[in-house]
Amino acid sequence: MKLELPEHKKLLYQMTIPIRWGDMDAMGHVNNTCYFRYLETCRIDWLSAAGGVPDPKGQGPVIVNAFCNFYKQLEYPGDVLVKMYGSDPGRTSFETWGTMERADQPGVIYAAGGATTVWVDFPRQKSLPLPDWMRALVS
User: Fold this and answer.
1) All domains of the chain in start order, with CATH
2) Whole-model pTM above 0.85?
3) Pure H helices in 1-139
4) With contact defined as beta carbons under 8 Å apart, do 38 and 82 qualify?
5) What digits encode the pLDDT tens for the residues 75-100?
6) At a CB cut-off of 8 Å and minimum separation 6, what does 47 contact?
């Protein structure tokens, strides 16, 4: 099964993350939980670069659904190139998608996943309309 990204996706950000020895499991490949960490790291770096760091006393993004499909095994040593895409801004939410490939094997997708993100007022624990600047980023 191959992840199909929406046609209207927009490349938001990309970064290279080193595979750490401790990312591997007893089977000698990167543990499945680390792929979610790679996606999270890229998403947080993108949000930071865009000026959207969550403010616990204010508002920001919350992940309400996340998934990952695994196609090939990543192994230490190496670097993972994570590409983050955005799509489908709604009233309060948007989608992010990420692909992961080895930096030394460009174009070969090892895993791909995504997350549904909702913009919230943290103190009130209520969703808010997406700010215009965030909508513009992911549109």
Assistant:
1) 10-138 (3.10.129.10)
2) yes
3) 32-49, 132-138
4) yes
5) 999 999 999 999 999 999 999 999 99
6) 53, 54, 61
